[in-house]
Design goal:
By secondary structure, the chain is α/β, with parallel strands linked by helices. Helices cover 38% and strands 19% of the residues. It has a 7-stranded mixed sheet, sandwiched between helices. Helix 1 crosses helix 6 and helix 2 packs across helix 6.
């Protein structure tokens, strides 16, 4: 009886994950914060952006992906990230990670919310080196109205994005399966969304290696 090993795509993904692991274990450095588009770095490298509601676990996921404890600031105060924060990956630099301002912060003044919204919208529409956006959604809550609004913004900007469920360790497996199925159903109705949903836990390391590989694949370097 013959035993079949991983298929060609499986082997490719395994190699990609290993390359991503090695790459992220090397140089990953904060570059700059940009409160306005005029402060963005020159579009010299591919960019992978991260967005999500405040307190979705964006900073924790960035830290987990890069194997750092404090690359991105974590805070219990929603809306702390008010700028586009840039991080460079590789020696020499191969691509950049962009931590976008969180959304859905109820306590922020409307004027401030609109400024952040304008910054994000203009960045999405005008950044030619933006290869992919990761839209983070809390597994415990699923896609909310504010997430749907962000998905529509990404669709309108024609920016391809992956939906990434965070904090998957915080709910029961049966509940998680329902959330994944529902999220995939919603994602497949959006023209710019990747049809498959990533499931992660920064605390437990669930899905981190696969997502790391996906980021490297999307950056196409």
């Amino acid at each position: 009886m013959s035993v079949t090993g991983p298929d060609e795509e499986g082997l490719r993904l395994m190699a990609l994950e290993e390359r991503a692991r090695a790459l992220f274990s090397g140089r990953v450095e904060f570059l700059k914060s940009a409160p306005e588009l005029k402060f963005l770095p020159e579009p010299d490298f591919p960019e992978i952006a991260f967005c999500g509601r405040s307190n979705v676990g964006k900073s924790s996921l960035l830290n987990a992906l890069t194997g750092r404890k404090s690359l991105a600031r974590t805070s219990v105060t929603p809306g702390r990230t008010q700028e586009l924060n840039y991080f460079e990956v590789g020696t020499p630099t191969l691509f950049r990670l962009v931590d976008m301002p969180g959304y859905g912060f109820a306590k922020a003044p409307p004027k401030v919310v609109e400024q952040w919204r304008r910054l994000v919208r203009d960045y999405l529409r005008g950044r030619v080196v933006l290869k992919r956006t990761l839209l983070l959604v809390d597994s415990r809550h699923g896609i909310k109205t504010v997430d749907t609004e962000m998905m529509q913004m990404l669709d309108e900007a024609a920016v391809g994005y992956r939906v990434v469920l965070t904090k998957a360790d915080k709910i029961k497996a049966s509940e998680l399966a329902d959330v994944v199925a529902e999220t995939q159903t919603i994602a497949r109705k959006h023209i710019a969304a990747h049809p498959e949903v990533s499931v992660t836990s920064s605390e437990k390391g669930l899905g981190i290696a696969a997502l790391r590989g996906a980021v490297l694949d999307d950056a196409a370097v």
